[in-house]
């Protein structure tokens, strides 16, 4: 592609540079407007500087990607309400056999849930779980936070819905869901295993120094607190069952309605009245033993007998109210269990549909709407949890990257690299992987995919159709695992870092250098071994 006029090249490069700075450093001092506004600013400048026309800007927005992203976010909201992530937290802490076992569980669960529910969602909901479990066992948090973030990135590479760059690749390449999974799954599984081994090798001594007896003065988080973090448990009855003594007292009160006749002798009447008075918890005054007036005895006995039945009726009514409330609560509990089961079945149906090759965007949107209808409530509170700022960020990014492509700079740079990055030999694959690794950490993985995707695929298509598919999968694998290289490499890393820092009473700061020291060897080894397994 020929270079655009010099003015367009300069203005287009300036617009892209502003977008890049604000995307990588959203709180930059001279313009702290954040990633979303920075993305829109870059898009607006591309149009104002006439690098692209307004119609070209609208056409650059990839609606299928936005639809798939929106659908998966809504599905994640309903999965959260259905306690899916609470159950994942329980699996983490259930019968743990020590810190190494816990670390392996975190890696496995993080990878699997990221492949199904996106890496960002997994990191959002599991970070505080991990912090609480580490504190419960008196363990240093950073090995487990690194395991969570890195495994989430690796695991998300296995499916088109695992992360945003895979969404873009799946839509642009038109590779089916099943073929995508089959192509990358072996590399993902081996990558997760290697990642576990690297973390264990780096922190073996630290994880082996766990105290057999935890410090008695340390505030240990209860297991129930770990298991119930963030998500409300199923509705339980607010009424406790009556204990046997209270129940017997109620029954004695009710039985007073059939008390014996008092038309006997004076002593017999006196004793009967005292027995009845005791059975209603001293609410009836005792009849004086020194009374000698028969009329007074008769009057008091009538008063007692008139009071007892009313108390018995009130007790019966109270018991019925309690039983009715318990029955209602039990019915609500079963109703919620049925709703959760239906949510899981709908999600299973979505995965089956994706494996069958149905349109991924409309499958995700249909699933989201099916869950909203199944909920049978106003969907607005659930839809408000969708990250619309992320969708807007993608819109601005599509326009900005398309404008930068039209300057001709990416095409000319690729023309220089293409002869050395052919995927039909090992050297070419290595060069391509290095380029993707570098750009993914320089410009972030999604812009890298947008810049390189079509060019890498076209170059591979000239070799064979199978190589074209392999080129897309290599791009997906390397751009995703590249996120583990540094703390700024992926949004999932930043989410874990921020969630850990701001966690109430559990705050922990994961430093850039501590992550970098682990990220470099992990990224290089996992990427290299995984490339040999991409089909």
Q: What labels describe this entry?
A:
globular; single chain; Citrate transporter-like domain-containing protein; transmembrane; cell membrane; Cit_transptr-like_dom; 535 residues; 23 helices
Molecular structure report:
It holds the Pfam family CitMHS. This is Citrate transporter-like domain-containing protein. It is found in: Cell membrane. Keywords: Cell membrane, Membrane, Transmembrane, Transmembrane helix, Transport. Helices cover 73% and strands 0% of the residues. With 535 residues, it is an all-alpha fold. α4 packs antiparallel against α14 and α8 (142-156) packs antiparallel against α22 (491-502). The radius of gyration is 34 Å and the shape is globular.
SSE arrangement:
Blueprint: H1 6-24, H2 34-48, H3 54-60, H4 63-81, H5 84-93, H6 99-117, H7 119-136, H8 142-156, H9 164-173, H10 177-208, H11 223-227, H12 244-255, H13 266-278, H14 294-355, H15 360-375, H16 380-383, H17 388-406, H18 409-417, H19 426-443, H20 445-461, H21 465-481, H22 491-502, H23 512-531
């Amino acid at each position: 592609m020929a270079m655009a006029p010099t003015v367009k090249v300069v203005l287009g490069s300036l617009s892209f540079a502003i977008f890049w700075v604000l995307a990588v450093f959203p709180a930059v001092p001279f313009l702290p407007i954040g990633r979303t506004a920075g993305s829109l600013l870059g898009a607006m400048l591309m149009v104002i500087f006439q690098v692209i026309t307004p119609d070209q800007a609208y056409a650059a927005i990839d609606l299928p990607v936005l639809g798939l992203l929106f659908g998966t976010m809504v599905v994640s909201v309903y999965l959260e309400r259905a306690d899916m992530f609470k159950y994942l937290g329980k699996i983490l802490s259930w019968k743990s056999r020590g810190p190494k076992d816990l670390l392996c569980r975190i890696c496995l669960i993080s990878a699997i849930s990221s492949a199904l529910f996106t890496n960002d969602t997994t990191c959002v909901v599991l970070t505080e779980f991990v912090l609480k479990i580490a504190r419960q066992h008196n363990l240093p948090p950073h090995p487990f936070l690194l395991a969570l973030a890195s495994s989430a990135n690796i695991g998300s590479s296995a499916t088109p819905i695992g992360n945003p760059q895979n969404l873009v690749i799946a839509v642009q390449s038109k590779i089916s869901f099943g073929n995508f999974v089959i192509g990358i799954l072996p590399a993902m599984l081996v990558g997760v295993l290697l990642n576990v081994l690297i973390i264990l090798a780096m922190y073996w001594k630290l994880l082996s120094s766990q105290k057999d007896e935890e410090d008695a003065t340390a505030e240990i988080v209860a297991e129930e607190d770990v298991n119930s973090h963030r998500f409300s448990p199923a509705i339980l009855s607010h009424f406790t069952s009556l204990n046997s003594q209270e129940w017997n007292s109620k029954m004695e009160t009710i039985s007073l309605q059939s008390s014996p006749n008092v038309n006997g002798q004076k002593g017999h009447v006196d004793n009967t009245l005292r027995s009845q008075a005791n059975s209603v918890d001293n609410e009836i005054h005792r009849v004086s033993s020194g009374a000698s007036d028969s009329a007074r005895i008769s009057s008091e006995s009538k008063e007692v007998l008139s009071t007892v039945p009313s108390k018995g009726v009130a007790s019966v009514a109270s018991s019925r109210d309690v039983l009715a409330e318990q029955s209602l609560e039990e019915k609500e509990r079963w109703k919620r269990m049925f709703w959760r089961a239906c949510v899981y079945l709908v999600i299973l149906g979505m995965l089956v549909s994706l494996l069958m090759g149905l349109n991924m965007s409309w499958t995700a949107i249909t699933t989201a709407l099916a869950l909203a209808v199944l909920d049978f409530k106003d969907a607005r509170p659930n839809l408000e949890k969708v990250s619309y700022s992320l969708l807007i960020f993608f819109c601005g990014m599509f326009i900005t990257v398309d404008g930068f492509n039209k300057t001709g700079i990416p095409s000319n740079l690729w023309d220089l690299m293409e002869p050395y990055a052919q995927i039909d030999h090992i050297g070419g694959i290595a060069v391509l992987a290095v380029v993707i690794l570098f750009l993914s950490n320089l410009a972030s993985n999604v812009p890298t995919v947008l810049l390189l995707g079509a060019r890498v695929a076209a170059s591979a298509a000239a070799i064979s159709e199978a190589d074209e598919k392999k080129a897309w999968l290599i791009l997906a694998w390397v751009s995703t695992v590249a996120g583990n290289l540094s703390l700024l490499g992926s949004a999932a890393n930043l989410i874990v870092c921020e969630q850990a820092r701001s966690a109430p009473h559990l705050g922990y700061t994961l430093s850039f250098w501590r992550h970098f020291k682990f990220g470099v060897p992990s990224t290089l080894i996992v990427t290299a071994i995984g490339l040999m397994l991409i089909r």
